[in-house]
Amino acid sequence: MRVCVIGSGGREHALAVALARTAEVVVTPGNPGIPGSTQASPTAIGADLFVIGPETPLVAGLADELRASGKLVFGPGADGARLEGSKAWMKEVLQEAGVPTAVYGTFTESEPALAFLRTLSGPWVVKTDGLAAGKGVLVTDSFDAAAADVAAKLSGAAFGDAGRRVVIEEWLDGPELSLLCVCDGRRAVPLAPAQDFKRLSDGDAGPNTGGMGAYSPVPFAGPDLVAEVLERALQPTLAALRARGIDYRGVLYAGIVLTSSGPKVLEYNVRFGDPEAQAVLPRSTGDLAALLAEAAAGHIESEPRFDDRIAVTVVLATEGYPFHPRTGDVIEGLDKADALPDVTVFRAGVARDADGAWITAGGRALNVTALGDDIAGARATAYAAVSAISWPGMHHRTDIAAIVRSAS
Ligand code: AMP
Question: Which of 81, 152, 201, 280 could form a disulfide with 58 if both were Cys (CB 3.0 to 4.6 A apart)?
Answer without folding.
Answer: 81
